[in-house]
Each structure stands twice: as C-alpha cells, then as structure tokens.
Amino acid sequence: MIEYISTRSQTPRLSFSESMLAGLAEAGGLYVPSFLPKLSAGDVASMAHQPYLEAAWRVILPFVGDDIPSADLIKLLKATYKNFGHSDIAPLRRFDDNFYIMELFHGPTLAFKDIALQFLGQVFGYILSRKKQKVTIIGATSGDTGSAAIEAFKGMENVNIFILHPHNRVSEVQRRQMTTIDASNVFNIAVEGNFDDCQYMVKAMFNDRKFCDEMQLSTVNSINWARIMAQIVYYALASARVHAMTKKPVTFCVPTGNFGNVYAGYVAQMMGAPIEKLVVATNRNDVLHRFFETGEMKGEGVVPSISPSMDIRIASNFERLLFDQYGRDGSIVGQTLKQFREKGSFQLAPEIMTQLKKSFVSGKQDDAETLSVIERVYRQRKYILDPHTAVGVGVAEEYQRKNSDSVIVSIATAHPSKFPKAVKKAIGIEPELPPQLADLYQRVERYDVLPVSLPRIQQFVRERAWL
Length: 467
Fold this sequence. Notes:
The protein is of the alpha/beta class. Helix content is 46%, strand content 15%. The chain contains 19 helices and 15 strands. The longest helix is centred in the middle third of the chain and has 22 residues, at 225-246. The radius of gyration is 21 Å and the shape is globular.
C-alpha cells in the first residue's frame, strides 16, 4: 500500500488522509508517495476510450488506499465534477493533426485549479466528517488557486479558509472571484508584497509547530499532494487519447509558475503514460527556463506581467522533482534548499541535468510576444486565448518548429474573460464573463490588506479562526 514520506526528513510515514490534512511535513518538506503505481500498455489503451470520471477513478484509487473505499471515491468524483461546464471536464480541441489544446477552464471559477480543488474540497469534507475534526486552511495564490479553493470550501462547517494574495498583483476578475464570496468561514488577505512573500508566510506558519498545532493548519496549495494526484488524471487521459489517434507519444506544453501542474505531468510520465516531453513555458519571469538551460536555479526579483499567475520566483513543487533526482535522499534536498535560501542560488550536477532533460525542455515568451500570439490565433482561428495559455501556445509552436514530428498538447489554463485587459489590448475585444459571473463587478468585496509580517498575519488568523 502507498504511504506518504517527506522530501526533507525521516518523518513517520503517513496514510493518504493524514498527509492530506497535514499539508506540509516537518522541517518544511513536501509529502510524496512512497512509490508510484504503474499504468500498463493495456491500461493506457483502455483509458483512451474511457470518460473522465472513469479514468480519474482508475488513476486516483491506488493513491488513496484504504482511506477512501472504491465506491465512495466514485461518489466523490461525481460530486466533484457535476458543475463543470463541459461533459468531458478537460476536452481536447484539435488545431491540426499534430497540435491540440487541452481546455482546463470549464470549472466554476474558469481555471485549471478547479479540477484539483473541487476534488480536494469533496475529499476534505469526507475525511473531516469521518474523523469529526475541524481544520484551518491557509493558502497563497498568484491568482487562480484562491478563488478555486474558496469556491470548493465556502460554507463548510468544519473548515476555516484563509487565502493570501499579493495586493494589486492579480487581475480584477481574479480578485473579485475571491473577495465577493459571502461566507462566514472565508477570509481574504491582500499582502503588501508579491506571491513569493505570500507563499513564504504560508510555509512559515506551518513551520511554527506551536501555531500549526494550535490552529490545526492544513493547506490547499499545490504543496498538498492530493492536488497533484488529481492533476495527474488529465495528463494520463489526454496522452492516452492522443496516442490512440496518432500512434505517437505526446509532448505537453505547460504554462508554468509554481511547477505543480507540469510536475503532475512528470508523475504521469513516470507512471507509464505515453508522454515524450514536458515543455516548461515561462513568461518574462523566467527562473525555470534559465534553470533548464543552465542547470542553475537562481532566484531574482519578480516583475509584474500580463500573465500574473506565473509571476513567481520560487517554484515550490520543484522540491519534489529534486527529491527524485537526488535518489529520494531528503538530507541532500534539505541542504540544497538551505543553500538556496542563504545564497539565492544552487547548481545541479551535469549528470542530473542530463537526466532531467530526458523529460523536460523549456521556453519563454515576454509580454509583447504573448499579445502577438493572442492576436494571431484569434485572427487565424477566431479562438481567444488568455495570456497564460498564450505563453504556452507560443512556446509550443517554437518547440514544434524545431521538432516537426512531435505531437503537441498545449495546456489552456484559464478562460480569457479572467484577463480582459490583456485580451482587449491584443485583439480589441473584451471577452464576456460566462452567465454565472455576469454580475461579478456589482458584488460587494470583502478583504483585509496586511503587511508582509508573520506576527500580524498569525494574529489575524488567531482572532478569526473558530476551532
């Protein structure tokens, strides 16, 4: 049976539900499964013809073990995706014989985060009810995670949820989707800093063991393995379907900030999904692109862009990849990240980079290039891309020019109406919000602006959490 271990220390092995509720491991490590289940060639072939819910059940069941019986998992999955706007959950749109878009924005908040967070909300409710527990969820968002998490957990009797977002550094639609939810268990904090400051505050609260225990903290960020697990599904399913049509392995191009989404693709590849490469697409904040080019991870200041969900300097989920590349030796991971905190950089050995490049390549698009992609795709296909998806499409096209035989699936991470200013700048048209959000600009907002101060934010949480 799969158990969960830390990327940094020899903490006790946990069950799926224990690791999910814990969120972050002691010493700041992330939980990962003790081993990965495998998808056989027969599994992949049959998955190509399965609906999304059946494929999700097949992929997720081994990870949850005895914590969620098979019949209950099916019920949770049905509840998870009942309000999605497309019956296929993550539909593939064919651009040409070797280029597809996978649309991940048909959930209630119009972003790919819904696919994992709607599931996470269902599972949290299920496990907390069985354990008769309450938790305080703390999360940081660069835009989309917050609204998806709030949508999943609003009104839950056994959950408080506090979401930190960088003040004035998310789009207005993203902010309003978080701050207009009228629920007594929802608290929005606008932090006077960038996303990395928000993420640091969350990790610092988890590393304060007294505070963590007192508040019964848990997290919905992609540092929570359950989110990665739910995202593996669409990589496995899409690669199986495209492989069945083309008889070729698939290359996914993923707009990347915190590395969680593309890491889920890597896990699917390691499980046996027919995935050839994973293309890491970055915007002007290209820390990850420079890493894959040079082998040096070097943190630099974040510059605001038209694709704000990718304006990230420190990609938390990269730690899970490091853990695998270091032979699952948590002590080396801890030393490497300590050096990164103290010196602002670390360099991986050439042999590790050679291994990584078997799975990963990278590319970047600046704001001008991103706007150009949105304009060209709309002119040629009358299809509107959001600025994050456009980063991915631009990088994917560049990759395919150099690798003409490759079959590309580029990830569409958000609906264009979430970023109306960027889209209007590119094509002169402001995309309309779907009917369920048509009155978003008339709704009352509720949020508090706080400085980048751990004591202030902890005090805020203490005063409002009910346990």
